[in-house]
Amino acid sequence: MEKAARVSASSGQLKEEKLMAYENTKVGGTVEERLGFDPTQVEKLSVKALLKKVGPGIILTGIVIGPGNITTSAMMGSDYGYSMMWILIPIIIMGITFTMTSYRIAIMTGMPILHAIRHYYGGAASAFCGIALFLSCFFFTLGNISGTGAGMNLMFGINWKLGALIMLAVLAFCYLTKGVYSKVEKGILICIIGMIVAFYATLVATGGPNWGQFGRGLTHWSFAKGSFTTALAYVSTNAAVTAGIYGTYLGLEKKWRKQDLFNGAMRADAITHVISVVLISGAIVLVGAIVLHPHHIAIKAPAQLGDLLRPFLGNAAPIVMGIAIVGAGFSSLLGNTQRGVVLFQAGMDKDIGLESKAVRIGCLLCLAIATAICFAYGGSPTQLIFIANVATSVATPVAGLFMVLIVWKGELYTGYKVPRALQVSMTICYIFAVYMTFIALQKNFAALIQIF
């Protein structure tokens, strides 16, 4: 079958078998002419059919819910109680907006995001975005390596560096085996379910939140004193453009078709991802607010993370928390490292297949360098996790700008209703993210430099 989606030299590097979601899409003419069908006539899928289509969102959740997310969520609750619960609302809006904008651009242009950026703005812009996205993922990897080490420390009492090396050896084995996508998807789903059960059981054991304070925290939108940096770290891990952009490449692995934008599959996937992230990280914030905040306990070491589950598990809490952190860290390491390398490869117009030699070697090199940096860092692994999470915010100001520009291109919607609500939401979310990033990084630039 002819692959008309290869409208530019930039998309030529995508192997033909990887173009399933974007095949036969043209850049000129009406939407119906470009897609090859009338999107208004596409039937909505049943709930059962939608469940079969959901997949990339699950992997994205596993990537997002890593040690950094657990640590930052616990900090939000322990440091500020219920006062910052309102941040969950913009996270839901931003997460769905960034993901749906990415999916829409990919289908309407016939190219995944970085290939679309290359088509409209040239190779330099695509490469710059690819590097920024890679760096964001690389910082996330730093937190994940430290986190898996911290989890092993909680479980077995061993040095966190030795624990991290053990998990990295297991990870390297996974990278060298076949069927990576299906294994990652199933493994991450198990980790997600386990974390949801553990933290919600703890909420029940503590008697649940103070609903009056919880409601006040949701409705009073103001930053608690000293909370800005923690809030940025929390937002940048739970709602970043990186997740949506990578989703457009995972869609190739899932064998999505163009019709999935209009039959509800991609929307269901985006909502599944964002809601599952909020359900987990929100529960951790609540547990921190209930268990640690009243006693003025600040998260500065891995052992304090174990205190979160003591009301439910008693002395077994550190071990169970260690298992949760290792599981979260491992799944996030596996998915996030691949994400960074794939996005870098895409920015440079190279092979993006998850099982390609270039991606596998790139992942191993990335892990080796990140491990060296982590082991050279003199502070607590928990501190490194937090600092690395703040640094992950660098991707949104760069790649998000081009996404805003592309989603406003009128030529993409000729003969079709313009998604004005999505355009406006994307613009507002981008401005909000850039504002938070600029202020927080300005305050923490010196701390970030110390990592290196």
UniProtKB/TrEMBL annotation:
Transmembrane segments: 54-72, 84-107, 119-142, 154-176, 188-208, 228-249, 270-292, 312-337, 358-378, 384-408, 420-441
Subcellular location: Membrane
Membrane topology: Multi-pass membrane protein
GO terms under biological process: iron ion transmembrane transport
GO CC annotations on file: plasma membrane
Record-given protein name: Metal ion transporter, metal ion (Mn2+/Fe2+) transporter (Nramp) family
Natural source organism: Pseudoramibacter alactolyticus ATCC 23263
One GO MF term attached to the UniProt entry: cadmium ion transmembrane transporter activity
Gene3D superfamilies: Amino acid/polyamine transporter I
Keywords: Membrane, Transmembrane, Transmembrane helix, Transport
Pfam families: Nramp
Superkingdom, taxonomy of origin: Bacteria
